[in-house]
């Protein structure tokens, strides 16, 4: 059995070819798609976070709204760029969204990806301290977030408060019990995956890795997952971690599917450059369900992960994205033993 959800990048554009022509469109349709996904039997609704772009940005109002409109499906991010975040304010927002959803929040965080602007986190008031780089800044903010999510008091109470305080140091409120164990780190390398394990975070691996050893993407990603789990065991954590991978998978069962994606399933991995280094990108899976079953059965990383996030073309609208999910859940997943 495997948890299957969608990952939306939340693109919007005023183009007449887009079904999401404004920020309002993409936010409201994101909620509707999460509701539809839950009705179809999917397990997760995840959203990418980008700043200074016509995409989803501040995630917590959206996550809270999705949590209020659904009852079972996991809600999450993939990922929040921690360079931009005030970790204390973030802990309050995350706690609120988690409580609204009844403890269904799965929060993916990371260093982030190439930005629309140069060092955009500086406009938010954050910059690395002397001797640090931007990756250090993200990890420092994450360490603070993880600490305050444990729920221990750390702030000296006012001796003459407006309202009575409980005894001792105060913690951030609202506190959501168990959220600390539902934090994921988006790791782009094998070494970062090992670091993630040592911090006690779940592993979120995407459709690209910012390294290339010459082996197919799914094999490199499977090695990353294996090294994560070994590092987790070596760290002695007392729970079983979770691992997700993202894939672009488009079952072709109609003329419309064929028009959109009929020519995209014949390629393989791509190798490029990201932040000045070599990176390997995973392939797009597109084709008839029987062919997808054969191809996905050979994907070692998908087999190793407990959670699969489907990157969806959100600009094609709720109905079409729900159709893609439904076809995969009913015509592909059962043949692979995922359902």
From TrEMBL:
Enzyme Commission number(s)? 1.-.-.-
Query: Which InterPro entries does this entry report, sorted A to Z?
Result: Bact_Lucif_Oxidored, Luciferase-like_dom, Luciferase-like_sf
Example GO molecular function term?
oxidoreductase activity
Question: What SUPFAM superfamilies would the database entry show?
Answer: Bacterial luciferase-like
Alphabetized Pfam families for the sequence: Bac_luciferase
Listed A to Z, the keywords are: Oxidoreductase
All copies of the Luciferase-like domain together span 9-255
- Under what name is this protein listed? LLM class flavin-dependent oxidoreductase
This protein's species is Nocardioides kribbensis
């Amino acid at each position: 059995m495997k948890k299957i959800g969608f990952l939306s990048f939340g693109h919007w554009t005023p183009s007449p070819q887009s079904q999401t022509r404004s920020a309002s469109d993409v936010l409201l349709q994101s909620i509707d798609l999460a509701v539809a996904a839950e009705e179809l039997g999917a397990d997760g609704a995840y959203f990418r976070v980008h700043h200074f772009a016509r995409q989803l940005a501040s995630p917590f109002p959206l996550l809270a709204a999705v949590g209020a409109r659904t009852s079972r499906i996991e809600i999450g991010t993939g990922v929040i760029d921690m360079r931009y975040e005030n970790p204390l304010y973030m802990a309050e927002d995350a706690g609120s969204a988690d409580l609204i959803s009844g403890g269904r929040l799965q929060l993916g965080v990371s260093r982030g990806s190439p930005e629309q602007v140069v060092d955009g986190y500086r406009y938010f008031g954050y910059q690395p301290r002397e001797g640090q780089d931007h990756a250090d800044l993200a990890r420092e903010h994450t360490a603070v977030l993880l600490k305050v999510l444990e729920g221990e008091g750390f702030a000296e109470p006012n001796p003459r408060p407006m309202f009575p305080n409980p005894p001792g140091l105060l913690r951030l409120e609202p506190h959501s019990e168990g959220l600390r164990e539902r934090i994921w780190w988006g790791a782009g390398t094998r070494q970062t995956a090992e670091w993630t394990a040592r911090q006690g975070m779940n592993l979120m691996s995407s459709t690209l890795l910012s390294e290339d050893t010459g082996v197919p993407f799914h094999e490199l990603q499977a090695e990353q997952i294996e090294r994560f789990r070994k590092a987790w065991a070596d760290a002695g954590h007392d729970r079983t971690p979770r691992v997700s991978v993202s894939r672009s998978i488009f079952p072709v069962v109609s003329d419309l599917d064929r028009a959109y994606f009929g020519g995209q399933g014949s390629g393989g991995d791509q190798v490029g450059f990201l932040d000045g280094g070599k990176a390997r990108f995973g392939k797009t899976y597109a084709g008839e369900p029987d062919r997808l079953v054969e191809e996905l059965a050979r994907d070692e990383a998908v087999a190793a992960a407990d959670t699969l996030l489907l990157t969806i073309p959100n600009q094609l609208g709720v109905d079409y994205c729900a159709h893609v999910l439904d076809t995969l859940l009913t015509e592909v997943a059962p043949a692979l033993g995922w359902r």
